TrEMBL record, chain A:
The keyword Transmembrane applies. The complex is composed of two ATP-binding proteins (LsrA), two transmembrane proteins (LsrC and LsrD) and a solute-binding protein (LsrB). The keyword Secreted does not apply. One of its GO terms (cellular component) is plasma membrane. The chain crosses the membrane at residues 29-49, 61-80, 87-105, 111-133, 140-163, 178-198, 228-248, 260-277, 284-302, 308-327. The lineage of its organism: Bacteria, Pseudomonadati, Pseudomonadota, Alphaproteobacteria, Hyphomicrobiales. This is Autoinducer 2 import system permease protein LsrC. Keywords: Cell inner membrane, Cell membrane, Membrane, Transmembrane, Transmembrane helix, Transport.
UniProtKB/TrEMBL annotation, chain B:
Keywords: Periplasm, Signal. GO terms for molecular function: carbohydrate binding. The keyword Metal-binding does not apply. The complex is composed of two ATP-binding proteins (LsrA), two transmembrane proteins (LsrC and LsrD) and a solute-binding protein (LsrB). It is found in: Periplasm. This is Autoinducer 2-binding protein LsrB. Belongs to the bacterial solute-binding protein 2 family. Coiled coil: none annotated. Residues 1-21 form the signal peptide. One of its GO terms (cellular component) is ATP-binding cassette (ABC) transporter complex. The lineage of its organism: Bacteria, Pseudomonadati, Pseudomonadota, Alphaproteobacteria, Hyphomicrobiales.
Length: 333, 368
């Protein structure tokens, strides 16, 4: 321990010398490394128990079938990093999916059916972001209200009917460019872009400052209002993309809100290492966490364990992650 | 003491029996089951005395044109549009009924009570209803009976003494028989199958699964129940769970039963996208509209649900007959127009009969 302390203080003095790769990885991406290790362990263990778990079709189910959760979790991570939360994401995706599907079956061009959820997601979250940033209403209150409006509105308008007869060209989630399912490509590309932006661009980096210490951020001249509003709008765009992946997976769309989707998305962000207190975490972590859940859910079926355990396991993971976060943040004595 | 020991032994023996048939937990509830006969002979129902209500001082309506209002849980959705169609069909056929459907656009019990109350005041001869809440609706229905109005329920019952008759769409044993028989016809009497349900604690599904398990053990003992997975009422989760079943069992899996109108189309989509149409059968409870793409593509041969048109039709017929006095307490059967003789069970419930099976040939006739 003492040696580590010394090496840190030494490296602090000699700033030019880069830290060893492993130490850098562990300090910057500790949670991500833990999740990768967990995913690999799970794949090896369940793969040994039943090799079919590692078949191409099952990997496709795990990765492509849940990519929309990972994509939604990217935006959610940004929102949580700036110190806010959005519980309306599930309802928003349900509403946007219904709109997108309705446009597709009504004969509008496919690009419009794809574009509408992204634009409308940004518009809806502009309102939310404005209320949070400028009207200073806590985000949990604004998004709870939004959730009720969207849920209630959707049921009254559609009566819970189904949309079927979707055109083949609409089904982008079933595309396989270069033999890879489109949802997986979208998930990986969007995660990397978002991670790169948040690490290397001043605006992206400033989100951590706004979430970590709003007063200090303000003192250094960062407008937290503008950033919070921007983050909500970006989050809306990711919700729109997640909606497209969600709505184009099956030939029918159920015009109701998918149950507990908001919790799944928030949980992915939190277990991915995004601090619920704001100010730290990465979107790579949230994507990995979304993959981890999907893999756990599939693994439980392969090893014949009741799905009840999925909830218990995820609940346990949340508590452990948040506890670890709290311990990390405790002032060092 | 001895009795409790006997019970324990019996339970153990039974659980050993079911665990032999189904090594993995099935998702059934733990209430007793009473599977129907394999050949479709009607179950010997224990007679229950009439327990419905009676309108007081009802005027003689025999042969006279009556004014009837149909109040479903809500209006504007396919399900109740089609029950309403059935009511209209029956009214037209009878010729002596002036029937209309009126309801709230939300499934709201307060709105429903207010509406029924208004119709009592305005003066109708008969009320048909599908209750949003069996207890809360009872007082206003009793008020209608007290005003001499004939009251018949369908789809969702009220407390028995608050109405005269209730048209019951399907019994758990009937649902179980339809699903397992349909599956057996498609995958053979020795096929292996898995189930996608909502959650293990949903009462309807748990009851149906319990009856399915009992009926399968009795009538198709060589069929193999591989597993039941839960998928809530989430279509993407249902899709992923069905895919995982396909991945896990490969060619050992011959059939998937969807227990909800969400799970069945999602399972059908999983089978379609896996290119397993024709190799893995999908049957299940489902409303016809979401099933149309899969049934028309030939990937799904049949989906099961009661015919909602017949449900409304039977309710209207029952109301006319009770107004005429031809359907009266103590009757064992009821002749419901084109549906023929329907069984009366549990004192005052008219059983619609076996659930409807939607296939390529008839699915376009249904729109809900």
């Amino acid at each position: 321990m003492a040696a580590v302390q010394t090496s840190i203080s030494v490296s602090a003095h000699k700033v030019q010398r880069p830290r060893p790769l492993f130490a850098r990885l562990m300090s910057d991406y500790g949670q991500e490394c833990v999740i990768i290790a967990a995913i690999l362990l799970l794949f090896v263990a369940v793969g040994l128990y039943n090799p079919r778990f590692l078949s191409a079709s099952n990997l496709n189910t795990i990765f492509a079938g849940n990519a929309y959760i990972a994509v939604a979790a990217i935006g959610m991570s940004m929102v949580i990093i700036t110190g806010h939360i959005d519980v309306s994401i599930g309802a928003l995706i349900g509403v946007l999916a219904t709109i997108s599907g309705t446009l597709a079956v009504s004969g509008y061009p496919v690009w419009m059916a794809w574009g509408a959820p992204i634009l409308l997601g940004m518009a809806a979250n502009f309102v939310v972001g404005w209320l949070v940033a400028y009207a200073r209403i806590p985000s949990i209150v604004v998004t709870l209200g939004m959730m009720s409006i969207l849920r209630g509105g959707l049921i009254s308008v559609t009566g819970g009917t189904w949309i079927s007869g979707l055109p083949k060209a609409f089904m982008i989630a079933q595309w396989k460019p270069f033999g890879l399912p489109f949802p997986i490509i979208a998930m990986v590309v969007l995660t990397l872009i978002a991670a790169w932006w948040m690490r290397n661009f001043p605006f992206g980096r400033s989100l951590y400052a706004v979430g970590g210490n709003p007063e200090a951020a303000k003192a250094t001249g960062l407008s937290s209002e503008r950033r919070v509003l921007a983050v909500f709008v970006i989050h809306g765009a990711f919700a729109g993309i997640a909606t497209i992946l969600f709505a184009t997976q099956l030939q029918v769309i159920q015009s109701t809100v998918p149950p507990n989707l908001e919790l799944t998305v928030i949980t992915a962000a939190v277990i991915g290492g995004v601090s619920i207190l704001g100010g730290s975490g990465t979107v790579i972590g949230s994507t990995l966490a979304a993959i981890l859940f999907a893999a756990i859910g599939s693994a439980l079926i392969f090893v014949n364990v009741s799905a009840y355990w999925l909830r218990a396991v995820i609940g346990g993971l949340i508590l452990i992650t948040v506890l670890a976060d709290m311990i990390r943040r405790r002032p060092k004595t | 003491m001895r009795r409790s020991m006997m019970t324990t032994l019996l339970t153990l023996a039974l659980s050993a029996g079911t665990s032999h048939a189904a090594p993995v937990w099935t998702g059934a509830d733990d209430q007793p089951t009473s599977p129907l006969a394999c050949d479709g002979a009607p179950a010997a129902a224990t007679p229950v005395a009439y327990n419905g209500g009676t309108p007081t001082k009802a005027p003689d309506r025999k042969g006279k044109t009556i004014k009837v209002v149909d109040v479903p849980k809500l209006v504007g959705i396919g399900y109740f549009n089609s029950t309403s169609q059935g009511v209209k069909d029956a009214a037209k056929e009878l010729g002596t009924v002036d029937a209309k459907t009126d309801g709230s656009t939300k499934a709201n019990i307060d709105d429903q009570i207010t509406l029924i109350d208004n119709y009592i005041t305005s003066g109708v001869d008969g009320i048909l209803f599908s209750a949003n809440d069996p207890v809360a609706i009872a007082p206003v229905l009793k008020k209608a009976l007290a005003a001499g109005i004939n009251v018949v329920g369908y789809d969702a019952d009220a407390q028995p003494d608050a109405r005269q008759w209730f048209v019951n769409p399907a019994t758990p044993t009937g649902v179980a028989k339809s699903l397992i028989d349909t599956l057996a016809k498609e995958i053979g009497q020795e096929g292996s199958f898995a189930i996608v349900t909502s959650t293990f604690t949903t009462p309807n599904q748990a009851r149906w699964i319990a009856e399915m398990s009992a009926y399968q053990a009795k009538c198709y003992p060589k069929m193999k129940w591989l597993e039941t997975v839960e998928a809530q009422e989430d279509n993407i989760l249902s899709f992923n769970q069905a895919n995982t079943l396909l991945n896990k069992y490969g060619s050992d899996l011959k059939g998937i039963i969807g227990m909800t109108s969400v799970a069945t189309p999602a399972a059908a989509d999983a089978v379609t996208q896996a290119g397993q149409c024709g190799k893995v059968s999908v049957v299940g409870l489902a409303t016809p509209n979401p099933m149309k793409p899969y049934i028309k593509a030939g990937c799904v041969k049949s989906a099961v649900l009661w015919s909602t048109v017949d449900l409304g039709y039977a309710a209207m017929q029952a109301l006319r007959a009770s107004a005429d006095g031809t359907l009266k307490p103590g009757d064992k059967t009821f002749k419901a127009g084109r549906l023929g003789e329907l069984q009366i069970i549990n004192g005052s419930q008219i059983l619609l009969g076996s659930p409807a099976v939607f296939t390529k040939d008839n699915v376009d006739k249904f729109d809900f």
